Amino acid sequence: MDTDVALFRLAARQHGLLTGAQLASHLSRHRRAYLIRRGRLVPIRPGVYAVAGAPESWERQVLAAVLAAGPDAVASHRTAAALHRLAVEDAPFLELTVPADRRVRLDAVRAHRSTCTVAEHRTWVAGIPVTDVARTVCDLAAVLSPSELEAAFDDALRRRLVSMRRVERVHATLAGPGRRRTRVIDALLSARRGGIQPGDSEPERRLVRWLVEAGFPPPVQQYRVQVGQRSYRVDCGYPDLGIDIEYDGWDAHRTRSSFDRDRARGNELEAAGRTVFRFTSASSRCDVLRVVGAALAARGALPSPPSLPAPQARTAGTPAPPAATSGHRTAPLRTTTAEAQARRPAPASSTTRHSATAPARRRNARSIGASSRRETIT
């Protein structure tokens, strides 16, 4: 029975899972059959068993799929993004990367076959083999839109999970002629070499993108302004023109002390002769361009203020209709679901995921049947 104890200790390090190979190396065929018949081992994937009574979790589902996919398989793409807690929407299936010469057919799993499965691109998160953050960002280029990928990349840079240099190295390893992933990552890296920074938040980054896309001079990000004996950090703006731009997010201003401190800082900047613009989640693209454009034009930094529709008056209790622009959406700076996920608290332990989205991941993974089995080659 000491063998059983050793196996169960091994299972405790693997989210309550054991592979057929691990069982065969410790137990006879008759003993394995006995434990399965008695319900002490429960088959959950081909060649993968769960110890009876082990707690279920989304991480256990991921590891079971990785173990069933065979050696050198890793969680990747959106599943890896979730494990790294990047700002990416969950997929309704698990995603793995396996060697190109292997075909994997598992329920609720999409297997990406790759010719590049080097150990340098792998790491471990919560006991699960997974692509590292740099490889994950590069892989996401194949499954996300450019704007979604940009948000995920900037989230990783903002939290210092990855560096530009590391992504460039991994991208050089994966790059191939004509691949969509190559073109998208090239554009992403090129923009950040040109001075675009992730900022302190996704809405702040979106503010900068709106200004640049409208043809305004690229704003300086995260600079400091000296006022008397005090030094204040500003989200973005044009320091040489005395224009400071701040994004007031609810998370950063929900306490009275932070609210009062921010108002005092704004007063100090205004008293020093600077112009301070504050935008919130309700500010649309038109709002930002109209106000900042007028200030830049007044200082000679733009030939003329941008031609944008004026805000529409509305009666009390009536929501304002979205303002139409010529070929541009006027989406407000609201935080998306993906951005909210980026601020999820860290899990309480390495074996249990306490994220609010974990139950949804479990439901999604179960809801996809055999018809969702797919393979791609990267």
Q: What is the SS-derived class?
A: alpha/beta
Instruction: Give the H and E element order.
Output: HEHHEEHEHEEEEHHHHHEEEHEHHHE
For the biggest sheet, the summary is:
4 strands, mixed
**Mean pLDDT, nearest integer?**
79
Output the strand order for the largest sheet.
4-5-6-13
- Number of helical segments with 4 or more residues: 14
Using only C-alpha atoms, the radius of gyration works out to 26 Å
Protein model, in words:
This protein has 378 residues and is of the alpha/beta class. The chain folds into three domains: 50 residues, no CATH class; 137 residues, no CATH class; 139 residues, Endonuclease, Chain A (3-Layer(aba) Sandwich). It has 14 helices and 13 strands. The strands form four sheets. A four-stranded mixed β-sheet has the order 4-5-6-13. It has a four-stranded mixed β-sheet with strand order 9-10-11-12, sandwiched between helices. A hairpin with a 4-residue loop joins strand 10 and strand 11. Helix 5 packs across helix 6. The chain is elongated. The two termini are 46 Å apart. About 13% of the residues have low confidence.
